[in-house]
Every structure is written in structure tokens, then in C-alpha cells.
Prior knowledge:
14% strand, Purine catabolism protein PucG, PyrdxlP-dep_Trfase_small, three-stranded antiparallel sheet, 42% helix, seven-stranded mixed sheet, 14 strands, PyrdxlP-dep_Trfase_major, Aspartate Aminotransferase, domain 1, alpha/beta, pyridoxal phosphate, Aspartate Aminotransferase, domain 2, 13 helices
Amino acid sequence: MAAVQSTTTTAPQRILMGPGPSDVDSRVLAALSAPIVGHLDPYFLRVMDEMQSMLREVFRTKNELTLAVSGTGSAGMETCVVNLIEPGDRMVVGVNGVFGTRMADVATRAGAEVTTIERPFGEVFNADEIAEVVARVKPKVVGLIHAETSTGALQPIEEISRVVHDAGALLLIDTVTSLGGVPVEIDAWNVDAVYSGTQKCLSCPPGLAPVSFSAAALEVMDARKTKVASWYLDMSMVRNYWGGKRAYHHTAPINMNYALHEALRLVLEEGLENRFDRHRQNHLALCAGLEALGIQYAVPADHRLPQLNAVVIPAGVEDAAVRKQLLSEFGIEIGGGLGPMAGKTWRIGLMGAASSNRNVLLLLAALERCLTDQGISVTPGAGVAAANGVYGAA
Length: 394
């Protein structure tokens, strides 16, 4: 038998300005290559403890049950749903994008009686809408997407949280794209369960899902009459591994935890407020540059995500051709639209390490070239000049 010839080559260097993953700092990549130890080694247990402490800082919470689930952000979603929901429980899910639809699907699979409240892609919910549905349905849990990655919309939470809790329900939110890029205030907003991912604004490779549960959520979980539908994601067991008992549950991805530990150190070294300001400033510069190129946003300014910019593809421009040219000629990745936005929008990420002046200016210059090649008339240098005007005024 002939030997199999490997065709694997060195991975290309990309500038990751899509909806995720984002660019990763060299310190985080170095942490990935640190020597592996056992999943109950005293050193690794100390890493876990420090990571829990840092996650509490980033989530702005004192929740005891705060940890990193072994799995991507979708595992975080499933963790929160299956631990709070028992068969027959009522759950309300806000659907204004792809990930609201996914949360409703996960809840249905967990046996919930799901009621969806819907808004067109790119819009957000208000407290009155939520008040009406929770009064009518009387759910156990209300689930909302704080940062809808498919649309670039940022969902206000505070007022809705009051409505949800006045109705006696628990509030679950998705912060996969928001954590580390815009304020996430779990205690101040009285959020009962939250999940995120590592590969967005935390600038860590995908593979872990930070989660946090309030005391009220823990009471509900401890009062369950049925087993959690997922053995792997059952917090009644996983929390004994992360807590004082250190009971073996599964072999944690050791080096991914090293990476998240280092990524969180970088977040806190920069400071959350400084990090939010950086994301906001680069968003404003990108916005000015895109508008100078004749490109409009798909989401109103009052609830745009600064780290995930969903913009309308100009008439006469071929979506896939531009994204292919950006990748092949400039090494820049941006994302296409999802669901009803497919072929109509681009999703431009400015997340974590990818949120920089350099990347904004490089993308605007490259995009000008792509638009020109598509036959679109633009003023040479207008995008870069407009962005530099924002930076100069800062």
C-alpha cells in the first residue's frame, strides 16, 4: 500500500475582521503551547481558580457559579438552557436573528414549551413587548440575545430585566459577541444566567464558553425534579469539579484553559473601560469611512454593536466576489449576512485584538479597491480620510 501523502501546508496569516473568530494575541498563542499537566494537577486547579476570579470581573458579577464550560459558545447556550429547563417548563425566547432562533430550538429540544416573540432582523425588543408576553405566558425563563451576531444589533437589558423579574421569571442572556467589547453588567442588570464564547472580543481561540449563574438560578437548579438532559453539561456535577470538592467530571481541555487565562489577563491589564472605548472609537472611524464610500449600516445607530458592524452591500456589488478578493489579495476576512440578510449585508468585526486603527484603515483602503473593481465610483482615499478625521479628533 502506498504511503499517504499529506497535503497540509502552513496555515495562512489572516486579518480576521469577520463575525469570529477574531485575531489572537501572541501571548495567548504562547499560552496554548505551555506544557500540559493533568486536569487535577495543583497548578491547573490554581489556573481554574484564577480564571473564575477574572471571569467574575469581566462579567461584573459576584456569582459563585462562574466558570468556563468545555465547549464553544453554543455549548454555553445549551448549558444555561438545559440546567434551568425541565420538560413542560414554559420559556419565552426573543427571536430577532439567527441566534434567537437557535436558543428557541435548544429549549424545545430540552422539553420546554417555547413561546417566541419576534422582531425583524436588525431590530431590538422593548420592555412593553416583553411585559405583554410574560404576563400572558407566565414563563419560568426568558431568553434574549444581548449581542445578535447575525445582525449587529445590541439589545438593551436593564428595563427588560425588571419586567421579567416582576413577573417571577428568570432572565437568560447571550453575550457571546458582547463580553469584553461593550459593558456586560450581570449583577447590576440582575441577570440570572449568561453565556459567552472565547473567540470574539476576548480574542482567544474557540473552545470554551464562559457562563455564570445567579443565586436564584442555583435555587431553581437545586430544586429540579428531573435530571439535566445533558450529562456533559450538568452543572450539578461540573460545579463540583470547579468548586471545593474538585470531583472529577471530565478531562478539561487544559491548554485551552491556559489560553483563556492569558486572554483574560490581557483584558484586565487593558482595563474594561479602556477596552470598551477602543472598540467604540474604531467603530466610529469605520462608520465614517464606510459612509464616505457610500456604504450604509443595516442597524440604526442607537443599537449598533461597535464590534460587529452589519452594513448594506451597495447595489450592483457582488457579495461573494468582494469577500473573496479581500481574502485573496489582502488577507482580510469579513463575513456575509445570515438568514434574510444573506447576500444583502456584510458583517465586519472589530473584536478584541482585531479592533485597531491599522485594521480599520487597511480595510477601508482594500474595500475601495474592491468596489472600484466592481465598477462602483468612489472618491479616491475618501474612506481612509474620513476615518482619520475621527481618529484625529479623538
